[in-house]
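Example record used in the benchmark description.
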Amino acid sequence: MKHNMGKTDRIIRAFVGIIVIAIGVYFKSWWGAIGLLPIFTAAVSWCGLYKLFGISTCKAKG
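Model output (structure tokens):
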């Protein structure tokens, strides 16, 4: 897979994922599991929706 997420985007997604999981744990709700998705996309630097819409936040190499 070609990376389509930049560093800032990855940091924001990881932070949002952690917050969503923390809120889910606090309220004892399984909805906190949704926080795993932004953490996963941040870890692999690839977003399916970005691919679908032709968006890339990676800086051009070169």
